[in-house]
Amino acid sequence: MVQTAAIIEGTGPSLHDQSVDGARFRQALAAHASGVVVITAQVDGAPVGLTVTSFTSVSLTPPLVSFYVDRASTTWPSLKLADYFAVNVLADEQTELAEIFARRGIDRFANCPGWRIGAYGVPLLAGISARLTCHRHSVADIGDHILVVGHVVETGTTGGKPLLYHRASFGSFVPHPRESE
């Protein structure tokens, strides 16, 4: 069963009266590094997928994760029909894969070697750092995006380094050396 989240509206001045300029908002957001995932699903026997940098954990009990999709996404009309989806956490050498799944108007899976159908019928990408298979838990319209929450039903990891996105560029994580104890 898909739940629709309730949004609590605040009182007081309109949020639009307090909004920051769009260019400044984007500039501030660009300072935040985020992981890069490809959300995949299968709808009517056809695989669909898109690159997302807004993925995050929501809850440990129950295990919930979320991501946002732009309302203008050409993939969302198909993706929203899927009961299950996979979150493919891209490895640091998968920049090209991130770019493929961000493009419009192409067969993304034709340009994606080594993917396979996993449990629950979801497409799983090869060479990723981790994957989470999810059942759609809830969906909410928020601003110019759609919030999708998934209940995690299966996971897998490889231990590889994740691909990161920062200031409109892809990169990899380099840990600081640990101080000896």
Question: What can you tell me about this protein's structure?
Answer:
Keywords: Monooxygenase, Oxidoreductase. One of its GO terms (molecular function) is riboflavin reductase (NADPH) activity. Residues 29-172 form the Flavin reductase like domain. It comes from Acrocarpospora macrocephala. The chain is mostly beta strands and 181 residues long. It has one domain (35-165): Electron Transport, Fmn-binding Protein, Chain A (Pnp Oxidase, Chain A), CATH 2.30.110. It has helices at 22-30, 76-79, 95-102, and strands at 3-4, 34-35, 37-43, 46-52, 56-59, 64-70, 84-89, 116-117, 123-124, 130-142, 145-157, 163-166, 169-172. Strands 1, 3, 4, 5, 6, 7, 10 and 11 form an eight-stranded mixed sheet that branches. A three-stranded antiparallel sheet has the order 2-12-13, with no helix packed on it. The chain has a two-stranded antiparallel sheet with strand order 8-9. Strand 5 and strand 6 form a beta hairpin. The N and C termini lie far apart (50 Å). The model has no long low-confidence stretch (mean pLDDT 90).
